[in-house]
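Appendix B, example 12.
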Amino acid sequence: MSPSFELTGRMTTARIGHTATLLDDGTVLIAGGRNLLGLPLASCEIYDPGSGTFTPVAPMSTARDNHAATLLPGGGILIAGGESLGGKVLKSTEIYDPTSRRFLPGPTMTHARVNHTATMLPDRTILIAGGIGADDEPLAEAKLFDFRSWTFRPVANMCVARANHTATPLGNGKVLIVGGESLAQSASPAPPSGNGATTEQDTTPGAELFDIATRTFTPCSGQLSGRNFHTATLLPNGSVLIAGSVSVNGEVLEEAFTYDPAADSFRATATGMIHPRANHAAAHLPGNGVLLSGGFNQSGLLRSAEAYNPAADRFEHVGEMAVERNFHTATLLKDGRILIVGGEDARGRALDSAELYQA
């Protein structure tokens, strides 16, 4: 069977800037985001791969978009920060309980933040790093959330204040932090409009490592040029694929790199991506590949998708989505399919459509 995309059930609400988190029972929680009017949402829904349908669940206590969602041991989900009505950047957190399908209030963060990262570590704490703060500036501040005590513990600041970056846990007790924005222009970084035009935003140069043992950040020995709207995906061999980006001069790039934790260095892939793209979604493929879908480039929004083959160190075209989309989510399901949800269409409108990729 050749790779293919097919539409599945529609969400009950169109949304962009949401999160999609795989639950232990194989369903996916879709939380928050912005609706067709650009307003933050408190509504949430569950996707059931068996029936191919979305079902509403109890809403969050606070409407939010561009928040972070992290699966907790035991099956709950930590929802942290984001932007709410009136552009308010949030300190609040909520915990989704999969048994009751309801949200419980969580502890309050020390700093309000949006477009940050929240990364589960091997010791079952969550590293919350960076983002845009309440003063509309990027944060260097980071914290560890201990879900057992429901408290935030201090760690050193990042080397560079950044937001909209990536944070990838490595197998050596460290977390790779790459790129992002160094100059905030709004609490929600505006992705390109539906016509593919880019906004002027500074990008944060370089990469750094968080050491779990020492709770400190240090610059990587090898470095990358500034980038934003890229993806970073851990590969089975322990390296990390860094794909696509908007460069410091606003150009959308087709370049891709792999990061080697042992050498602490970046290396360009044998070939670049087939299409320049940024603000796309990346998801693991069954086996050892990575699916890159949608996004935008100078030509506009993309329907195309491609897969990175680590053995060949190259990208392969794998077809087109049913709908061009930008700022969507892509989630590997337990049956090996990939669920692609929501995002923005070519007219800049939030989407309620979803589709499935079968490798």
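The radius of gyration is 19 Å. DSSP finds no helices and 30 strands in the chain.
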